[in-house]
């Protein structure tokens, strides 16, 4: 019987992939030992949580987009003017931490040009910000 998957291990792999993609771009899969070493997980664990590199890329894309959107939208004032909305979004990112935002943004820049990110991942990642009402100025 297989052991149950650990959310901590999955998160460690996601965090490691974020940092490695930010530093080196989309690392070829034969270098998966880097993910495992950075995440502090045993060899082969990567494929327990993500069957393919494409699965890891899509999961990472969705997580980064959703984390940033959740942070930005947490105190979003939908009825305010655009300048107040922008200030609220930027202010909401501060608790995440500048280094984490920078690493996530750099990884996201790599992921957004990847042909591997599926339409479903793009739709899921953009869903929170599409709920914002449009204002006629």
Outline the structure in words.
The protein has 137 residues and is an all-alpha fold. It has one domain: Tetracycline Repressor, domain 2 (Orthogonal Bundle). Helices cover 66% and strands 0% of the residues. Helix 4 (53-73) packs across helix 5 (82-93). The radius of gyration is 17 Å and the shape is elongated. The mean pLDDT is 75.
Topology of this protein?
Blueprint: H1 7-24, H2 32-39, H3 45-49, H4 53-73, H5 82-93, H6 98-112, H7 119-130
Key terms:
single chain, 137 residues, mainly alpha, Tetracycline Repressor, domain 2, 7 helices
**Number of alpha- plus pi-helical segments:** 7
**CATH homologous superfamily identity:** Tetracycline Repressor, domain 2
CATH topology: Tetracycline Repressor, domain 2
Q: Poorly predicted ranges (pLDDT <50, ≥5 residues)?
A: none
The arrangement of helices and strands along the chain is: HHHHHHH
Name the CATH class: Mainly Alpha
Return the average pLDDT rounded to an integer: 75
Number of strands: 0
Count of structural domains = 1
Distance from N terminus to C terminus (CA atoms, Å) equals: 60 Å
Q: Quick one: overall form?
A: elongated
What amount of the residues lies in strands?
Answer: under 5%
| Helix proportion range | 55-70%
Q: Mind telling me which CATH architecture this is?
A: Orthogonal Bundle
Largest sheet: none
In short:
It contains 7 helices and no strands. It is mostly helical and 137 residues long.
